[in-house]
Amino acid sequence: MYALVEDNEITKLINNPKAMVIGDVQYPAKIFQLWSTSELNAIGIYEVVFDDSNKKDEKWYINTNQSFAFADGTVTASYGTATAKAHADSLWTQDEIDDGDAPEGTSPGDVKTRGLKYNLIQTIKQQASGLLAPTDWYVVKASEVSDYSVPTNIATYRASVRTKSNEMETAITNAVNTPALETLYTYTEQEDGTVTRPLGELPVLES
């Protein structure tokens, strides 16, 4: 990306090289390929430098739009301060209901918007259910055939999935804010070379 700077002000952003009129001169698109940086700068064209230092993971944060600035011969695109997404559900208040902002039939304390915790826990539940599904037939068979029992390794595995799922849900519930949730999901390399996250992983059935 390039920017056209005139009188020390950014007047145009150029997403793709193209023919341009600057002042009274028509310039072909090829100048972006053939001209040196200093030659482009001489007619007011600067390549944009992207500063992503304030940009955060959009799973957890809402980033601002980029702003563009020209200073010291450099055009920089940067982000403002990101806003953490709500970690907890937001609830309707009596004032909002009285003002007519809530859907008809809403009561104080009803969920207005789901937060990250709810959505993350639903994902854990779905993942655990998906892991248990292939072995559900053992349980069904045991309930229908009197002389059949679920194999020990299967029963142990199913119990471990539920236990770990509950532990993960509790960890998510207990997270005090969005950065704490992000930390639970952040993988780091351990001394033994493994890469793990504080939240851990659901167990997988060994073949």
What's the gyration radius in Å? 28 Å
Estimated helix fraction: 25-40%
Residue stretches low in confidence (pLDDT < 50, at least 5 long) are: none
- Run of helices and strands: EEEEHHEEEEEEHEHHHHEE
Number of domains: 3
The description of the largest β-sheet is:
5 strands, mixed
Total DSSP E strands:
13
Quaternary state reads single chain
Fraction in beta strands: 15-25%
- Average pLDDT reading: 96
Structural class comes to alpha+beta
* Cα end-to-end separation: 52 Å
Spatial sequence of strands, sheet with the most strands: 2-1-5-8-7
Shape summary: elongated
Helical element count? Answer: 7
Q: What is the secondary structure topology, with strand pairs?
A:
Layout: E1 2-6, E2 9-14, E3 20-22, E4 25-27, H1 31-34, H2 37-42, E5 45-51, E6 61-62, E7 67-71, E8 74-78, E9 83-84, E10 90-91, H3 94-98, E11 111-113, H4 116-132, H5 136-144, H6 152-174, H7 178-184, E12 188-189, E13 195-196
Helix pairs in contact: 4-6
Report on the structure:
It is a single chain. The chain has helices spanning 31-34, 37-42, 94-98, 116-132, 136-144, 152-174, 178-184; strands at residues 2-6, 9-14, 20-22, 25-27, 45-51, 61-62, 67-71, 74-78, 83-84, 90-91, 111-113, 188-189, 195-196. The protein has three domains: 2-83, no CATH class; 85-114, no CATH class; 115-207. The strands form five sheets. A five-stranded mixed beta sheet has the order 2-1-5-8-7. Strands 3-4 form a two-stranded antiparallel sheet. The two termini are 52 Å apart. By secondary structure, the protein is α+β, with helices and mostly antiparallel strands. Helices cover 34% and strands 23% of the residues.
